[in-house]
Amino acid sequence: MKIRSPIVSVLGHVDHGKTTLLDYIRGSTIADKEAGGITQHIGATEIPNDTIDEICGSFISALTIKDLIPGLFFIDTPGHAAFTSLRKRGGALADLAVLIVDVNDGFKPQTFEALNILKMYKTPFIVVANKIDMIFGWETHEGFSFKESFNQQAQSVKQALDTKVYEIVGTLHKEGFQSERFDRISDFASQISIIPISARSGEGIIEVLAMLLGLAQEYLTEQLEINEDAPAKGTVLEIKEETGLGLTVDSIIYDGVLRTNDEIALMTSNNEVLTTKIRSILRPLPLEEMRDSKKKFKKFDEVVAAAGIKIAAPNLDDVVSGSPLRVLNDEEDVEEEILKEIEDITINTDDEGILVKADTLGSLEAIVQLLKELDIPIREADIGDVNRRDIINSSIALNENEAHGAIIAFNVGVHQNSEEDLNNSDVMLFKGDVIYQIIEDYEEWIKQREEAKKKAFYDAIIKPAKFMSLPKLVFRQSKPAIIGVEALSGTVKQGQKLINKNGESVGIIASMEDKGETLPDISRGQRVAMAIDNAIVGKDFDEGDELFIDIPENHYKFIEREFKDKLTEDEFETLYEFLEIKRKQDPDWGKFGLFE
Predict the structure, then answer these.
(1) Are 323 and 235 in contact (CB under 8 A)?
(2) What is the pLDDT of residues 109-139, one digit of tens each?
(3) Is the distance from CB of 286 to CB of 306 less than 8 angstroms?
(4) Among 318, 394, 492, 494, which is disulfide-ready with 268 (CB 3.0 to 4.6 Å)?
(5) Which stretches make up the Tr-type G domain (predicted)?
(6) Which CATH class is domain 2-225?
(7) 16 marked ligand binding residue
(8) Annotation-wise, does 570 bind a ligand?
(9) What is the CATH number of domain 348-453?
(10) Is residue 559 pLDDT above 80, yes or no?
């Protein structure tokens, strides 16, 4: 058995310094070449022990770190959820992770998302608090260890940094993690290390590398054991068109050996297994990054894990990012193993719920997990663009339950031929490239729908109101009775039934008029002429009497249970006057039964 390099994933919010950190280590300038300084593609960089020794010097020997680990193998993700595509059966591809946080900005949406994913996969990680050189008054000491640089800062600067670090400690505590600045930790197994650094000046990088090596040797040596002679296992990062090679697969090999002419199995966008033969294996040299290898790629006849490689092979058109990669062999049913991996994710759905689409297996898994934690049911979860079938299925779900007429689409688009279908349907599409932002948008939509339904229901409920029949303003005694009235409380509406102070039915409001204008409703203080069907003035009520809107018993119960706090003060008083009138006739009127 051989010990391989631990695979280290670097995650964090956009612009918090992921690529700059790796640039310092490998001495490259990839960050300057990226559009807007943001990593556009997933990359992998091998950092051999010789390089780590050069950077860390006597610092590492002082820590008595043994030479069990051959180096570190960094994966540079585009920040938020690309980590999820880097998976293997049973969990995350990364053995360790670096969660990078701008010490001045603190946790941002993508930081929280990365933390949730690390929590989900139970990946050990350290927190790197970057941009200490931006703290007011900080004196930069290029290439120094954090402790050496920190000791030379003014007291006020030290206090400012400590305050910022403890804000990170507080945030992590709320998220369920115990943490501390790395040099104050008593138990590395139970506390997360926070290492303050400047990725630009290199301050603190020594401690980052030493900490990762130390954690790997202390806790991961069994996990890092590989059989150099076993058929390779890997994960597809990207499918890319390369001049002179055609479509190629960028992949991380995390176990075993891969050779030219090996037959490999991969997953397609149709959830089927594709087998193809390797034409050539290309690999960047150590310290060369897969996206920017200055010497391009060197051909290899074989590679042993851990390795970042490019594979040239036929028929790669439908292979998906995040696909498992397996070498066909006589000892394992490789195709069955890949199908099981797919089933692990897609089979865990409900009879009803929303639809989920994602760009990779791992992304899909992360979204499904987060939705399950929020008790949001999932009817179907799959990889690829939103298509016509998805829209039809969502429309069916919508008819069954309005809240389920939604599609959550992460890092995917809508199929060109399906845009019109979507626009002609009532299905809601929530799409984007930050998982929890999409889910938040969906939850906000649900909340708004619930509030709209509640408002519509509240508007439909008959609420307390009363008015007075004004003395000497009887224009007709009956058929219909027409009188002058003044609204005393609530909103009096056309079509409402009325009762008098004895609880007896008076009739129904037929219409209301003011200066020739017909009014659908009146509120407190308004004086109008009112026509009342089925009422006789002098028999059902007298001039000067107060008349009440007759509230059905089930409406009263809803008001009591759901909407009492929405009533105005005058409506509230009228409600209890009305209740008194009703209970003189029936003492149990409006009371809640034992099981209500």
Answers:
(1) yes
(2) 778 878 888 888 888 999 999 999 999 999 9
(3) no
(4) 318
(5) 3-220
(6) alpha beta
(7) yes
(8) no
(9) 3.40.50.10050
(10) yes
